[in-house]
Design goal:
The structure is a homodimer.
Chain A: H1 34-45, H2 49-56, H3 61-70, H4 73-83, H5 89-94, H6 97-106, H7 109-118, H8 121-128, H9 133-142, H10 145-154, H11 162-165, E1 172-174, H12 179-188, E2 198-202, E3 208-213, H13 214-219, E4 237-238, H14 243-253, E5 257-261, E6 267-272, H15 273-291, H16 303-329, H17 332-337, H18 340-368, H19 377-407, H20 410-440, H21 445-473
Parallel strand pairs in A: 1-2, 4-5
Antiparallel strand pairs in A: 2-3, 5-6
Helix pairs in contact in A: 1-2, 8-10, 14-15, 15-21, 16-21, 18-19, 18-20, 18-21, 19-20, 20-21
């Protein structure tokens, strides 16, 4: 999508531009305004193609994709059909998976193949990898031969690996060249990649040795050896490496681009920081949703999709809630004599559950960022137990007083205070140890820790409170 | 930290290199191995400076920072003192805030001022902005005059703004220049920035108009006008913009670098994607911790720090748990007649709480990524209520049967089934509407939604279950 560069981002010149006005008061920076969405939907309602194209023109492909995600399926169908030939590959790349297939079905075959041909080969890979077989083939058929081969080759690497993430176009030169040779080489080459930041130095076996930034090349005399201006901290990435580890390396070591090598250490592609940033964003999103017991939720999923994602977690939760109920049922006799216990028991469980969630979230994040390791795990566990003890003691005093005042029974105050301390210490221990153990067992701690930790705090909370009550009050 | 580029990242040549071995089986990719940490601590124990320096040499500054964060305060003090003159500015920049001040105090003034002088000015800003006044001044005094002025100027921008994030070194040329003129200009300039990817075209008033990548410059004949090879999607960033919005723009529009402008649209600096990536990472981290009711937790905080962060959230939770208890206490009479109610009531509350957390997490993320807007909020709310109704009905059937079988009372089964449906629908509604309303009120929905939503599901759950029971069973 080409546009008049000078105007974008300033948005002072005309009212059409206010979509991109960086400091839009109404809905925060950079979002589509509600006004624009309404105007676009009005153009769709009135079947006014010219007006639609004019309204969409200043929008970035990412914003158009957001727009398509936000409107309902009926409007989406009419919009895509009306927009038709203007629909380009960039919008397709930006679309959320949940509505991608739906939109592909709406496009005429000509528009679809034009759109796909415009895309970079690594975007095509990202785009087709999760499509159904027949759709994937239809799109591959639309590509030119060389692009199709490139995409098919990328698809031979495992899902979510560096091999799928990388672009295959690289700028590599022999490691004994000078700055002048490299510049001349680049100026002669016709097919330089769209985006590249480094010239990669390779040995005669095509093994990457180091790289130099274009900026350094610009700043150095022609006769300088490339080997003398390479960047420190150079590292290569195996094509089979998991994309999450790739994103971690970019973030940890502040990489801008890194060459990808095959099992023989030969250069096969390059990954740039913008790809790594997208992966980092996705991994975070996944962690947040998993911690909340939502598989891969998105607002655009159909109700049936959403049910499929959420129901298993609720079923697991039902199981653990029933376990907690079984603990309570052990003490039915005690409760029927002291109904105050039924009133107070959820407080002990709830405080433990919250404290446990706090500990586990810090632990899950520390594991993800590799800050919780064999070297400090015991110190962290001790520390969390200590925090639990301190918090437990503080809230035990508060609840002890409340128990005394509310029910006029000092023993009840003592029981709830003791149960509170026990449960908060257990919460700190379980909140740290459960994610660590799950990690050792190769289970994603973000996915499963929550259920285990709250089961522990519910069971311990009810058992400690009701058990102590049975001992002390009866 | 300079090192032999050729070896890093391959790690086949010698045993010293295995620290960086990308596919370390023991603790996952790229982490410090436990063996290395043990060897380093042994060198510290034996006061063997030579061995320590040798072991630390292959480590990236980010890894050394991680190491310092993972060991205990006693070892940290000995290690920093022994490492002494080798300690450089890059390690300081990488250190977590929680132990930064501690480490600064350990360094001798000479080592500290050498370290700070090595740092880029934007790293110094990031480093000093949260230090106490006297330490901040000590560090500013160590800088050369020009750097000090640059840092002090950056500190005049608001905290967490684009002005603090940007680097001040830019490469800008008049907008009517040719490729040849730009290349000659860069080759003559002595102080090109360490990292830059674009040449910025400015008008005579220093307003950025467009930018061209270094790659395109390399690929174009000398006489080409820069204006003809500029990148689409150019946008500038106001210096006062919040860094979270900056990161959003980089992620949404796949920016690599973007010029920063003052209130008169004049160029004052540039932000690059690696800075934006760090901010994106921090914002995500913050969201995850806030959703779990942990302020700004880190594993390295002292116990007292951690207590200060977590206690307020537990206190709020205690308040809401007491409200739920008050609801239960309304039905003490009913419970004393049917103790089964006390056994089953946590199940209704727990299922509602979990369903509500699922809805709210999806909503909070959608708000953060600007996917939940005025255009689709009602559709999303309706959808979540529908999901709640469907899930509620499914689990109502299960619990109805369990109630009947466990307690042999069909009416109890009916009561718990009805309460389950009511609470799950409310969970879907509250989980979506509460974050939306908080956002409208300019309260961070990640921070406060959880408490409100679980309060609603607890109160509604207990009230619906016990209230229906009172009506039906008595």
């Amino acid at each position: 999508m080409e546009r008049n560069d000078a105007d974008i981002g300033h948005g002072q010149e005309g009212s059409d531009q206010d979509v991109l006005e960086p400091l839009d008061e109404e809905e925060g920076a950079y979002a589509l305004t509600r006004k624009t969405v309404a105007a676009i939907l009005f153009a769709v309602d009135t079947d006014d193609r010219e007006q639609l194209v004019e309204l969409m023109e200043p929008l970035h492909a990412a914003d158009i994709a957001d727009l398509l995600e936000q409107i309902n399926a009926f409007d989406r169908r009419r919009l895509v059909r009306l927009y038709d030939k203007e629909f380009d590959g960039e919008i397709l790349s930006e679309l959320d998976e949940s509505i991608r297939e739906e939109v592909i079905m709406l496009l005429s075959p000509d528009v679809l193949s034009d759109a796909v041909r415009e895309m970079d080969s690594d975007d095509v890979v990202d785009f087709v990898e999760y499509l159904e077989e027949p759709q994937q083939e239809a799109i591959l058929d639309a590509l030119e031969d060389s692009d199709r081969v490139a995409v098919q080759q990328a698809l031979t690497y495992p899902e979510e690996s560096a091999g799928r993430l990388m672009q295959r176009e690289v700028v590599a030169v022999p490691d004994m060249w000078t700055v002048g040779q490299a510049i001349d080489f680049m100026r002669q080459r016709e097919d330089l990649p769209e985006q590249f930041y480094h010239v990669i130095l390779v040995d005669p076996r095509m093994k990457p040795i180091a790289h130099a930034t274009l900026g350094k090349l610009m700043a150095s005399p022609r006769e300088t050896l490339l080997a003398d201006i390479t960047e420190p901290g150079f590292r290569t990435i195996p094509a089979s490496q998991d994309e999450g580890d790739v994103a971690y390396a970019f973030n940890q070591y502040h990489l801008i681009s890194a060459p990808v090598v095959d099992e023989n250490d030969r250069l096969v592609g390059v990954i740039t920081i913008d790809d790594a940033m997208i992966v980092l964003d996705e991994e975070h999103e996944e962690d947040i949703l998993r911690l909340a017991g939502v598989g891969e939720g998105s607002l655009n999923d159909r109700v049936t999709e959403t049910l499929k994602q959420r129901m298993p977690w609720l079923a697991v939760n039902l199981g653990t809630a029933i376990i907690a109920s079984l603990v309570i049922s052990l003490f039915e006799g005690t409760i029927s004599q002291f109904v105050a216990l039924a009133v107070l028991m959820p407080i002990v469980a709830s405080m433990g559950g919250n404290a446990g969630t706090q500990s586990l979230t810090v632990a899950v994040r520390a594991i993800a960022t590799k800050d919780l390791t064999g070297s400090n795990v015991w110190r962290v566990i001790r520390r969390e137990a200590l925090v639990g003890l301190a918090n437990g003691t503080a809230f035990a005093v508060v609840m002890g007083v409340i128990g005394l005042v509310w029910f006029g029974d000092g023993r009840l105050g003592l029981v709830i205070a003791a149960a509170m301390i026990i449960n908060m210490v257990i919460a700190g221990l379980a909140g740290t140890m459960i994610p660590v153990v799950l990690e050792k067992l190769k289970v994603d701690p973000a996915l499963a820790s929550g259920t285990f930790v709250t089961t522990v705090t519910d069971v311990v909370g009810f058992f400690a409170f009701l058990g102590l009550a049975a001992l002390v009050l009866l």
